[in-house]
Design brief:
alpha+beta, Aspartate Aminotransferase, domain 1, six-stranded antiparallel β-sheet, 3 helices, about 30% helix, globular
Length: about 110
C-alpha cells in the first residue's frame, strides 16, 4: 500500500509546532511518532488516529471514521478516518487535536534491544 503524500504534508504542517516528531514507515504507510509514541498515520487516502479509548465509540460516529482493523479484531483507541471526513480544516483539526491530547497520556511501546 502507498500513502498520499498530500495527506502526509497536511499532517506534517499540523504537527509542525510539536517537538520530538519522528516519521516512520509502517503498516504500508507513514506513521508520525510524537514523543516516541505512535500518534497519527497516513495510509492511502486515510489517516490513522490514536485516540483516547474513552472517546472511541463517540469518535466512530463522526463522518468518515471507522475502526482500525488489521487482524479481524478492531483495536479500541485507533480509528481510520477517510479523506471525506477530513476535507474541512475544522474536521481535520478535530482529529489532530484528539491524537495530540491522547499522546500526552499514552504509553510508549517498549524499546527493542
Amino acid at each position: 500500500m502507498a500513502y498520499s503524500e498530500k495527506m502526509a504534508d497536511r499532517v506534517r504542517e499540523a504537527l509542525a509546532s510539536q517537538k520530538n516528531i519522528e516519521e516512520k514507515r509502517m503498516f504500508g504507510g507513514l506513521c508520525f511518532m510524537v514523543n516516541d509514541k505512535m500518534c497519527i498515520g497516513v495510509n492511502e487516502d486515510e489517516i490513522m488516529c490514536r485516540i483516547d479509548p474513552d472517546i472511541y465509540e463517540e469518535a466512530l460516529e463522526r463522518n468518515g471514521a471507522r475502526p482500525m482493523d488489521f487482524t479481524g479484531r478492531p483495536m479500541k483507541g485507533y480509528v481510520f478516518v477517510h479523506v471525506d471526513g477530513i476535507k474541512k480544516k475544522s474536521e481535520f483539526d478535530y482529529w489532530i487535536s484528539r491524537c495530540l491530547e491522547f499522546n500526552k497520556k499514552a504509553k510508549a511501546s517498549k524499546k527493542k534491544k
